[in-house]
Amino acid sequence: MFNNITCLRTRIESLFITFVLFCYLAGFAHAKPSVFIRHTFYSISGLTPHDLRTQMDKNGPGAKSNIEGDARTKWAVNCRFGLRQDTGGCRIHNVTTSVKVTFIMPRWKNADKGSPELREHWQNYMKALQNHENGHSDIGIKAAQEIESVLTGLSPMRSCSEMDRKANSTASDILNSYKKKEMYYDIYTLHGKTQGASFH
User: Which of 30, 69, 173, 192 could form a disulfide with 96 if both were Cys (CB 3.0 to 4.6 A apart)?
Assistant: First the structure.
């Protein structure tokens, strides 16, 4: 499901969730990741559950992939750190992370013409779907938190080039572990179905 991951100040992408990690020298520090959230939508229309289901299958993010789901969450982690050489070796400092989250959700554009029963059914579905996608967002935020915590605790190394490589490989390993969490999350929830995110 995922491409191989490398962390050499380059982009890291997968077919489902996009992970972007830029680790480079900087002098900013935050106690916890900064989180930026954006919502995007694709339009559907219809006046019956079958109409809406067909439209989501046709226009949704799963239409051109083999991954289920009427919504997608993309998140990107950005990490920065400083390096300082002294008599005890090279130390990492001022580790900071941020997370950009993008939700891709369906929007029923002629909902005003739907029956009260269908609108209620849709609203309940959207709440459950957003709840599932929030779980994906939480995984990205936790990845950033772990990267910040682990990198901050790295022991000094002989040279800053060694520390730079260590920080990048450590962050890459952490991202790999959260890629697995992404897969397990969808397996355990059946892409949100066990959380009520199922529309028929």
Answer: 30
Helix or strand (DSSP H, E) at 177: helix 160-189
- Is the Cα torsion angle 107, 200, 195, 127 positive or negative in sign? positive
Q: Domain limits of the chain?
A: 11-195
Cα–Cα distance measured from residue 88 to residue 153, given in angstroms and rounded to the nearest whole number: 15
Residue whose entry in the numeric block shows the structure tokens 């609203």: 123
C-alpha–C-alpha distance, residues 41 and 4, integer Å: 29
Structural contact between residues 71 and 62, judged by C-beta atoms closer than 8 angstroms: no
H helix or E strand, kind and range, residue 2? none
pLDDT digits (tens, 9 = 90+) for 32-87: 889 999 999 999 999 999 999 999 999 988 777 777 789 999 999 999 999 999 88
Q: Hey, what amino acid is at 89?
A: G
Q: Which amino acid is at 65?
A: S
Give dist(CA 168, CA 75) in Å, integer. Answer: 19
